[in-house]
Design goal:
The chain has one domain. Helices cover about 20% and strands about 55% of the residues. The chain contains 2 helices and 4 strands. It has a 4-stranded antiparallel β-sheet with strand order 1-2-3-4. It starts with a strand and ends in a 5-residue tail after the last helix.
Length: about 90
Amino acid sequence: MKNIQPIQLWQNGQNKTATHLGLTLVHDNLQDVAVFSYRLCKYIGEGEETSIDVITSGAVSIEGQEYENWGVNMLANDEAYIIACQKLNLSLI
């Protein structure tokens, strides 16, 4: 999970604020495409009482030249978050 600039989203008739982005790699053909599942979430509570409110989820992919360049100039995990944020119009903080 990475912190993002808070964003207001509509969920079940309410405005909710997402503060975190979670990514999970669900497919990588090791050639030219990787697909990530994403979750926009907010932590609720503190300590042992902390839970995660998933506000929305979906999929984002890295393909073609972007895939070939992925992980060349920085750690692949860090760059995956940067690419996902660009595609989802989010800002890491």
